[in-house]
Amino acid sequence: MTNGWIDIKNTDMMLIMGGNPAENHPCGFKWAIEAKIHRNAKTIVVDPRLTRTAANADMYLQIRAGADIAFLGGLIRYAIENNRIAKDYLLNYTNAAFIIKDGFKLPEDGLYSGFDAEKKVYDKKTWNYEEGGDLTGKPVAATPPEKTPPPLKAGTPPPAPVLPQKIAFDLSLQHPRCVYQLLKKQYERYTPEMVERITGIPKEQFLKAADLFTSIRKDGDMKKVATIIYAVGWTQHSFGTQIIRTAAMLQLLMGNVGRAGGGVNALRGHSNIQGATDMAGIFDILPGYLKMPTPTDVDLATYLKRITPGQAKPDPWDSFNYWSNTPKFTVSLLKAMYGPAATKENDWAFNHLPKIDRNYSWVNLWNDMYEGKVKGIFAFGMNGVMIGPDSQKNIDALKKADWLVVCEIYPDETSEFWRAPGITADEVKKINTTVYRLPGAGFAEKDGTFVNSARWLQWKNVAVPPPGQARLDQEILATIFLKVRELYQKEGGKFPDPILHATFSYTNPYNPSLAEVAKEINGKALADITDPKTNTTIKAGQQLPGFAWLKDDGTTLAGNWLYCGSWTEAGAMIQRRGTEDPSGLGIYPNWGWSWPANRRVLYNRASCDLNGKPWDPSRRQVWWDEAKQSWVGNDVPDFKVDSSPKDHMGPFIMNPEGVGRLFVPLGAMADGPFPEYYEPIESPIPNLLHPNQSNNPVVKRYKTDMDKYGTVEQGFNVICTTYRLTEHYHYWTKNNPMNVQLVPEPFIEVPTELANQMGIRGGEKVKVTSARSHYIAKAMVTRRIRPMKIDGKEMFQIGIPIHWGFRGIAEDEGKTAKTLANELTPTVIDPNAFTPEFKGFLVKIEKA
Amino acid sequence: MASAVERFDDKASETFESVGRTTVYRGELLRHPVYSRALHWMVALFFFLALFSGFGIYLPWLFRWFTPIFGGGQLLRAMHPWFGLGFVVFFGLQALNWLQPMIWTPADSNWMRNMKKIVSSEEKMEAPDTGFFNAGQKVQFWEIVGGCTAYLITGIILWVGAPTFGRILVAISYVIHDISALIMLGGIFIHIYESTFGQPGTFQSMTRGAVSEAWAWTFHPAWYKQMTGRDPVQACEEARRQMTTGNKP
Amino acid sequence: MADRKALQVEMISAHPGPVPGHGVQRNLEVCKLVDTTTCIGCKACEVACVEWNDMPFSPTTFDNTYQTMPETRWNFWNLIKFNEHQKEDGTIQWLMRKDQCMHCADPGCLAACPADGAIVKYANGIVDFNQENCIGCEFCISGCPFNIPRFNPETKRVYKCTLCSDRVGEGLEPACIKACPTGCLKFGTKDDMKFIAEERAKQLRENFGIEKAGVYDPQSVGGTHVIYVLHDATDPERYGGLPKNPEIPWSYTVWKWLFKPVLGTFALFGLLGVCLHYVTAGPRRTQPEPPRKGERNG
């Protein structure tokens, strides 16, 4: 979330799409209701189903699953066409005025410039800004040819293209290659008629919604704010990241980012998924979103050069470019990881870090296991078999593994994968996987922190001790680690140093206290360090008050630079429970601690106009205090506090340009600098914008015998989407009688019209089949999903809640067919975030 | 069907007769055989059980008095419908048993016309055509038949309850059930009075089963005639003469 | 029940004579406000109710709906009713209404109850069942216009929502209110809740174009201590059978407290009549009667 849960109460307009907060985030949804009640805020819900969120909305539009970019692109077009954009904001806080290189091509045929059809990747050379100065009012010229680089030494790869130091711009936005004009041209094709044909949303409804959403910028008024709220309904597509980008662009266009009640807000599906991401629960990052080293990073300097952005901005403007501090964050992390073993001489033990040679994301891991390349897996706090996609492939992969370690609180589908339906007793005998089951502790049995969607770190206490033989995660992990280290000590190994040198100096190394770990993550000074400006000194061993103190000379240590400031000398900020909210904006600065630097709304400099005055005086977050020559406010300014508005420093300090990116230059996105609408991999129609390039061109299909993809021609003519219910939490609560009482059995939501065609009634069993497998459950016949007209043809969508498998109360009582919803889903991943396409695939449905 | 029921009734009657005993002395007539008496007292028993348990539910003022008799409100509530059912069943058997003598005759219409004289004891003897049961008894009998039917229907509705029958039907049943009970309550006072203090000599007909011939010719002359073949008025006069001519017959 | 200071008894079912202590203390009426326009059907209230009241789980089966079960049960007092309503323009409105005891000012259950003290109404408006005194006659079920009391065939007692009288008596809000994540449930004095509800309905009419929005507080039962904000107050039936004009059958009030005593007295006239007959007309004796005293023989 750029903003936060409570901040939703400050909004005037909500677009909820790709998410179902009323059902899946009911506690957070109260803030949406606060906004309705106290601000008369309007809600637009766009979803394949009339959900409980939609039931509370002022407007509900039923969209075809996966058609989100078409809808959002249509909104962008509508906003531009009707001049419902934030002109000043656009000009000064985004890259709308920046000029793009000659040779960049928009995807009228479905492809941007630089596509390599063989490798299915883009050469992003042309996806870059043009070097130059202020071109406002100047004649259009072609990009000067690049200077021929000096000849390379044989064997060294060519240097990656970088952003120009001085970016050419046109403040009149008239230059045909300025971002704004390209954007306009890009979404010119997303007419209301096209939106109707692709999404199935009737044109009048779309126009009504577009008018309502953009009405906050009627007549150039900047006071009102709109928010966009989404969840995995957007991420789980083969173009998921681009959907979110489209939303971000819309919000930038309308000047809603950085403002109270605005932003682009991802609702996290688990209590600590934000924390898991921050702490690098993903293969390609290190804690604090530092990039993972690759084999080309032969030393620290090479690595830092690659990942530290240099200056790149319009010359007259200023830019903070906060990522220029990357070396400080990196060295402090290495010091935290390897302690005294990390010295200047050995590059702070940089080479102890593993280097990623390829994609190790979720679907690839299982694919590798299925292909026999991965021999074992540790499954902690997740049910790998159920999660899918293509669960049968995961089950078959586990059959091939040598070993499996599961740490859980219930026997689950992963730890008992051999019980999957269809595996006979003879087959079970042939499975040679050794399964180790570790008794984990439940969330209420552990202390530690949860980081919520609003980026708040909140400490929780133990409610009850773990029962029986159950152990805390850290105890289990530490015990395994210490045992492995012991083996390395005894037996040596190929490269024992990273294990032997890792710091593990906890009071009780066999069961580290999480408070100690949290303090380590915050970081401390390793020598006395002094800030010359304020002449304050932090003594060696003291906790650091914030990441501004981090050094790249080995005098500081921090497990995650973003969390620096969470546990200072003043105590555990994350344990604070202050309920003061002087501004009334729901900032609660003394409750818990929010990264970065206890800032509640990111990019909050953008809540003010060029002169540093809030766009809306009634929602004052931060502002420029002329007398103090400083940024002050109710929130912590997300800015260089002494940068006067006169310096024109951009509010988006994490981008080297300092501005929000309508156009994403170079390598940040794999599939295009602007989002383009592509069909899901399994789609009922060819892409109406460019039938020859229906799908996302950089998406790869997997090649094993399990990876099958269906088409309408094969009879898979119904669009299917998966989702979760309020009453259940993933694959857990099927073990809890209370939850089972609320929703006892799996079901499939089927539109009444489809049910009539099939001749079935509610409660009868139906079988849903995809190219991969089938799923059987009772039908919930409902009028909440209507038949849709997609490109003039009548089509049906159905929905399947994912919560049931082959272990649980209903399952053990024999009340279910024991099929898994994710047996249906395809093995396709988004090229940017590697999230599988769980929403919007093709199935056929019949009476079971 | 009717004959089968009649056969059952006859058979039950015979069975009871073989078990029970009725002593009829000289100068007496058999009024109620064992079967009738047994049924009567079962009806009476269940009537009073149902009545008193019903009182507990019926009037808030009586709740605290009557519920303890039945071991508390819950038990009272649980047993009341069974008592009622017992009452209805036994009365049903009795009704079968008495169906024949309870048939309305022209004599009964006459009786009704002369009721005032009879009640005020102006007429010392019943009209000569008064049979086994007089019209007053028949009225009460048929009232109970009607009442029982109402009880049974409304009682079942109340017993099964609103979820099945709907709250309005229950509310109506509740009133009908109560009114039926009230009518029967009024009737029971008259019934008890008439069979004890009101007509001395009657009570034994339901205890021993036999009545004196004098009782028979006084209150049920036609029945007397039927049983003895003698004219009730003459028989009475003869007795009077004997009485006045001295105690030495 | 009545021994708690904060809960002053105002009415007692089937209780002859005055209510002890009634009117001695000043008491504000409490009220639960259910704003159906902001209910998200999350069922937190259902769980909170089951948990707080320590009720056993009862099995449910899939019934083509998100609704947990068709109706409340003796061990499930709080049920969100889900209804798909087709509006005139053909669009579907998914309505969610929390169903529970309405705590009427004139409680039909209490009027119907024949058991002294089985149902009490506190001065704060809460209508509470006291199962100790319940005789399981189920009359309350027919007395209730909202179809709320539920009979447990095992204990032979009737149960329903208590508005958490145990919590309210200690100054806490009911469990469902405590659990509600969105604030669609509110608890306070009746006056306050009525005010908030009317304001909300006004807001819906004026700012959200929901012209028929209104408050459900049916006067036919004297008002209720659970009130609803509805999108369409003219048609409460669509919210899972919320009666438009809830009524208590007259038999339970008029019959019970007026006609019963009167007609009962009439029945006693039978007793009086026979006594009078005995002393006036006298018994009828078998004929011939023996000569009376002083009467000459012959």
CATH superfamily of the domain at 6-93 and 193-274 in chain A: Dimethylsulfoxide Reductase, domain 2
What's the overall average pLDDT of chain B, rounded?
88
Q: What order do the strands of the largest sheet of chain A run in, or round the barrel if closed?
A: 25-27-26-31-24-30
Largest sheet of chain B: 2 strands, antiparallel
Strand content of chain A: 5-15%
CATH architectural designation of the domain at 6-93 and 193-274 in chain A: 3-Layer(aba) Sandwich
Query: Helix count of chain B, per DSSP?
Result: 13
Largest sheet of chain A: 6 strands, mixed
What is the straight-line distance between the termini of chain A?
43 Å
Order of helices and strands of chain B: HEHHHHHHHHHEHHH
Low-pLDDT runs of 5+ residues of chain A are none
**What average pLDDT do the residues of chain A reach?**
94
> Gap between N and C termini of chain B, in Å?
54 Å
The portion of residues assigned to helices of chain A is: 10-25%
Estimated radius of gyration of chain A: 27 Å
Structural description of this entry:
The complex is a heterotrimer of chains A (848), B (249) and C (298). Chain A is of the alpha/beta class and 848 residues long. Chain A is built from 23 helices and 31 strands. Among the domains of chain A are: 6-93 and 193-274, 3-Layer(aba) Sandwich (Dimethylsulfoxide Reductase, domain 2); 362-500, 3-Layer(aba) Sandwich (Rossmann fold); 718-847, Beta Barrel (Barwin-like endoglucanases). Chain A is 23% helix and 15% strand. In chain A, the strands form eleven sheets. Chain A has a six-stranded mixed sheet. In chain A, strands 3-2-1-6-7 form a five-stranded parallel sheet, sandwiched between helices. In chain A, strands 10-11-12 form a three-stranded parallel sheet, with no helix packed on it. In chain A, α7 crosses α8 (203-214) and α14 (362-370) crosses α16 (391-400). The longest helix of chain A has 19 residues, at 473-491. Chain A starts with 12 loop residues before the first strand and ends with a strand. Chain B is mainly α. The model of chain B has no long low-confidence stretch (mean pLDDT 88). With 298 residues, chain C is α+β, with helices and mostly antiparallel strands. Chain C folds into two domains: 9-248, Alpha-Beta Plaits; 249-286. Chain C has a four-stranded mixed sheet with strand order 9-2-11-10, with helices on one face. A three-stranded antiparallel sheet of chain C has the order 1-5-6, with no helix packed on it. The model of chain C has no long low-confidence stretch (mean pLDDT 90).
